[in-house]
Amino acid sequence: MRVTVWNEFFHETRGDETVLRHYPDGIHAVIADGLRELLGDDVEVRTATLAEPEHGLTPDVLDSTDVLLWWGHARHGDVEDAVVERVLAAVHAGMGIGVLHSGHYSKIFKRLMGTTCSLKWRNERDRELVWTIAPDHPLAEGVPNPIQIPEQEMYGELFDIPTPDELVFISSFSGGEVFRSGATWRRGLGRVFYFSPGDQDYPVYHHPDVRRVLANGVRWARPQAPRRELTADHHPRDWFVQG
Amino acid sequence: MRVTVWNEFFHETRGDETVLRHYPDGIHAVIADGLRELLGDDVEVRTATLAEPEHGLTPDVLDSTDVLLWWGHARHGDVEDAVVERVLAAVHAGMGIGVLHSGHYSKIFKRLMGTTCSLKWRNERDRELVWTIAPDHPLAEGVPNPIQIPEQEMYGELFDIPTPDELVFISSFSGGEVFRSGATWRRGLGRVFYFSPGDQDYPVYHHPDVRRVLANGVRWARPQAPRRELTADHHPRDWFVQG
Amino acid sequence: MRVTVWNEFFHETRGDETVLRHYPDGIHAVIADGLRELLGDDVEVRTATLAEPEHGLTPDVLDSTDVLLWWGHARHGDVEDAVVERVLAAVHAGMGIGVLHSGHYSKIFKRLMGTTCSLKWRNERDRELVWTIAPDHPLAEGVPNPIQIPEQEMYGELFDIPTPDELVFISSFSGGEVFRSGATWRRGLGRVFYFSPGDQDYPVYHHPDVRRVLANGVRWARPQAPRRELTADHHPRDWFVQG
Amino acid sequence: MRVTVWNEFFHETRGDETVLRHYPDGIHAVIADGLRELLGDDVEVRTATLAEPEHGLTPDVLDSTDVLLWWGHARHGDVEDAVVERVLAAVHAGMGIGVLHSGHYSKIFKRLMGTTCSLKWRNERDRELVWTIAPDHPLAEGVPNPIQIPEQEMYGELFDIPTPDELVFISSFSGGEVFRSGATWRRGLGRVFYFSPGDQDYPVYHHPDVRRVLANGVRWARPQAPRRELTADHHPRDWFVQG
């Protein structure tokens, strides 16, 4: 399984001490390490960032990616539309994608969802509890119920997303808010998941249970069949007389 | 209730005799007549077409539209992206939309769904039977089960759409194909329905049961509250100490 | 619209002072008053209790009930199976039903859901916040987001229910738990909702927002068509040659 | 993986020549052979029938069954309620179950669904086409789209079931009817699927694609974790202070 971890890699390059303490080599590096640690030889992990040509997401890279993870926050608007369309086409053809935390407002997530993807937020060190409501779901395999995250940005409802195919996690925050923090959808032949825990200001991607969910997610989202384009096909009347 | 019926109005203007026999003043005119006939004074119907400035969908028109119906086929690519984004924003803020037949491949439907919206098709006078599988749903009110359409283009599965919030109709065709021909989704604060029966080559929009479904659809899709924009809101920690 | 409010009426008859302070004439009386207050002449409200013959749910009563509300807690096992089957058949034929709070463990709710309907609980005066996640849904009309309930029993996930057709409310509790506190399903031709806020030890059914949700619920759950039995029907091959 | 194939084994024992030509040792024998052929050493298949003590479904048998397949038709009423409750409890604790064809009217399926499970039918050698609408789903792995069944009983909508978690197959029949012929649900910790092709009067369980779906189904429905009972658990306030 080949995974590409995409990060806008912006906060980390501006010298913000808090961010650098948690993610000196970038959020993508920590996420990639977690996948390697948990999936071992089953996975080959690459990273890509906004500043690279074509944001590191050339046709070749996407063609050889089974699952793409997406982290962005402050530079959603700088992602080129052509690259967004390319990623969208790859998902439709079968590539899996996991969108993380502030990636809820990325162009690609809004294109996949068809909604505004807006939510409530507050960055004041709330405790987040991530409750599993689909105990059977692969995303929740091997994590405690709830996952306890001591300090995290609050994301609250109303989260403007389409009704999930599968609602896996609901979080509460110390301020009393709730959030659908883990959910899945199908789009074309590709599987999509969103998982909200994870922020540049907190060491959430070092949390072993969060790492476990991401590893579960890429395993769940990997293609079930060779990639193929869905097109409008003419279907002749005599199609079923096949002898 | 104020409804705007949008039609690309292309086939009808090119002198195709079959199309003109069924729709001498355009498909939109026949659809609009059906709504006026069935909804009477409850509805104020306008039409808009591709050739008009801004395709007839100026901010003023959209602001004063409760439900938009969308028919297009051969000129999807000519619809300006700026207008598509404007319609999308209106739906997110609460405007209802009904997408009809070949509108499955319109830019606005693909933006709302996040999928390719591809399907199988064959234009050879299939008989279509439209079965109600949600007898309780407002879209199906007052129509026989099944609706019988003597001649119609075949649309078949796989129809690449997200799992509907409500699957209301499933059609069969004389060639043996099946199709999820009536379905609903929420997007932002707006309600979306898709209904496939209806084609430029057949008099389907004169069919009394098809007219009934469209009238049901606009009634179902109308906004439930004043339009408002969904945004990312900061939620202070002390929000709930309201006394 | 004719509503029957069913209550096992057990806690109130045993002299528990806390319960009697909030519900001197029974929980059903307070719920019924709320419906009359909010729905006025649109509704005719009756009550029925466990101790009555056939628990007050004779065929005549059910035949003339559009929506049944169900509250029970300590005496689920005393409800006769024959009455449960009668209520189930009425729902299948189109009667609406709203199951309240500890009614999650009633025979009728388990029959409608097909699951165990188990959950976590704690009776220690938690503050409950009830967040709307389906702003468009009739159940949530006119209530603040969130509804704030100062003291309430905690109900927490995992709540073993089938995936709701519509998930309307999610609650958080001061202990950090979350709960899918308002949801809907279709069963046969009948509409079903569950709403968890409400307990014999707290004055929750006097809370104006809770009363509003119950009034919304009975309006939403009322039958859309005359009651009829669903049966296995033979469908002759020539059914569609209707001339 | 241990599978138990349950069959009421009634038609076959009454000397009906058509049935005996297709299923001389019983429908269960043919289904079991198909599973062994396709799953090989991955599966251990047993059978059980109505006439056996406790219908062959003792606690020991259920405890050692990962997935139960259920075929019944003429003797649903003879299945003891105590056995139905036992099967239901096993599903809630994690056992998978696949309900086949006329099993739609079995006690266990109605208990799992909470609906009437009624449908339309006609036994006149219709051709059935089984279309995949969820190409990603394990149930549809390796089967052509559509599966073509030359002769089969017609089952048509309205099929009174709860909205499926996943709708995998939709069938059409030569009479023009449609049917949701393959679908899944979760109940408790157990996975449930329904698959309609298969009848005592036609050799459908010898059809290689139908056999493939059944093999796919038992693989999909097997438990994801050790069996456990879901109960109402008290959750103390200090649960999360775990150090």
TrEMBL record, chains A, B, C, D:
It holds the Pfam family ThuA. Coiled coil: none annotated. Residues 23-221 form the ThuA-like domain. This is Trehalose utilization protein ThuA. It comes from Desertihabitans brevis.
